[in-house]
Design brief:
With 212 residues, the protein is α/β, with parallel strands linked by helices. It contains seven helices and ten strands. The protein binds NADP nicotinamide-adenine-dinucleotide phosphate (NAP).
Length: 212
């Protein structure tokens, strides 16, 4: 771990994002939070990080956020029926590719995509809806097609708000979904670990599940 590592976090006010920011600070990383509304960040956290207000759907906002960082982390998610993933992830990857030294991008996606069985994808479509899955799928494809930017695609199984235990199961094998719900805190732990651990970089994406 290099404490000089500077990370911009998209979705820093969300459930996974809040855990990520807290854990990244504990490890000692420098954190820039990208948020639509800075008031959603706790004062204790806000005092320790740089905050950039903006909208992930606005490419100029995203370019400002991605400038001068070593790592981009996205914990973004659509709110209500708003589908944001394709546009937001295109903005992030485009901005990252433009940097003189493109940052590594650690991006949350979903189980049910690339390398997951058709049955899980079918179940997910019933739960989340066709539109949301199609949006995630396009975002996922945009990331995998990027050649100028190293990336980790994180595909967690069902998220829970239970306390984390710092453990997870992760694999890049095809069709190897772990059907074990995972606390959001442990998804964040995986993403923090991935900042220093390059074993998960690559096109296939990482299937992630909980571990007792
Ligand atoms: N539920 C599951 O079982 C499951 C499984 C696998 C993957 N996932 C995915 O995991 C991701 C994280 O989940 P979560 O529960 O942490 O989500 P969440 O709490 O809803 O957080 C979403 C974050 O995205 C931000 N955001 C939304 N639109 C934005 C925009 N236009 N510009 C900037 N920020 C924007 C939100 O900001 P505001 O605070 O301003 O709204 C929030 O910080 C989601 O993509 C989710 O679909 C979920």
């Amino acid at each position: 771990m290099n404490p000089q590592t500077k990370i911009v976090v998209f979705g820093a006010t969300g459930k996974v994002g809040t855990h990520f920011v807290e854990q990244a600070l504990q490890v000692g990383y420098q954190v820039r939070a990208f948020a639509r509304n800075r008031a959603k960040l706790s004062q204790a956290v806000a005092d320790k990080i740089e905050i950039l207000e903006g909208d992930a759907l606005n490419s100029a906002d995203v370019e400002r956020a991605v400038a001068d960082v070593d790592v981009v982390v996205s914990c973004l998610g659509g709110t209500g029926k708003r589908l944001i993933m394709q546009t937001a992830y295109n903005n992030i990857m485009t901005a990252a590719a433009k940097q003189p030294h493109p940052p590594r991008c650690i991006m949350i996606s979903s189980v049910g995509l690339g390398g997951t069985s058709w049955l899980i994808k079918f179940m997910l479509t019933l739960i989340a809806g066709k539109g949301a899955i199609a949006d995630f799928e396009k975002a996922d494809r945009r990331i995998r097609e990027e050649t100028a930017v190293p990336f980790v695609l994180v595909r967690p199984y069902a998220l829970t708000d239970k306390p984390g235990n710092g453990r997870y199961r992760a694999t890049q094998k095809q069709n190897a979904t772990f059907m074990q719900p995972i606390p959001r805190a442990d998804v964040a732990r995986f993403m923090v670990d991935a900042v220093a651990d390059r074993q998960w970089d690559g096109k296939l994406g990482v299937q992630l599940g909980g571990k007792k």
